[in-house]
Amino acid sequence: MDADVVQGTLHAAGSVSLWDLFWQAGFIVKLVMIGLMAASVWTWAIIIDKSMRYGRFRRQLNKFESNFWSGQSLEDLYHNLSERKTSGMGALFVAAMREWKKSFEKGARSPLGLQTRIDKAMDVTLAREMDELESRLGFLATIGSAAPFVGLFGTVIGIMTSFQAIAGSQQTSLAVVAPGIAEALLATAIGLVAAIPAVIAYNKLSADAGKLGMRLESFADEFSAILSRQIDEKLSSR
Predict the structure, then answer these.
(1) Where do the domains of the chain lie?
(2) At what angle do helices 89-105 and 174-236 cross, to 10 degrees?
(3) Which GO annotations describe the biological process of this protein (predicted)?
């Protein structure tokens, strides 16, 4: 922003719309604003996508638990689930049953070894499911913590440029100072607009992911106990 721009701003002092403030800002401040607006759009895309995914995931868990405890045989349930891509508890169940069947097909004789392999298979699947649940949450945390400082950087640059132009114009009235400062402060405002939803959404979605993860871990422990009893029965009957 040079002295000519400041003079032009004086003539347009009555125009204080956000669009005008954006176009009157300097090049660096505009880049900051555009980056923050893009980050805000991506933040809302993640929030909407994750909210919908968590809703579907929760319904899948409820449906699987209903089928699992309905009295249906484990073999039939495994046959139905293994033919298609599964997630959540279904993925844990399929991983455990696959290891179970492979081990007995190869003549497993050690209950402890078989139980360890089943638990390891479910642990690996559980880690994969948690990675999927928590994916892109780190971006929300980054925007929530960094966006205000990025906006503040744009504000500082804008104010410095404004004061330099004001010094060159040799006019210090409020009509000269106010438009440039308003342009610079817009960057901080956009930074806060991007950061506040990101922080709130990160806390909410992280808590939801933790609750879903606890349900997966509880099922893994419970199913491991069920298979442990069946392992003892099968090996003792040989």
Answers:
(1) 3-236
(2) 30
(3) bacteriocin transport; cell division; protein import
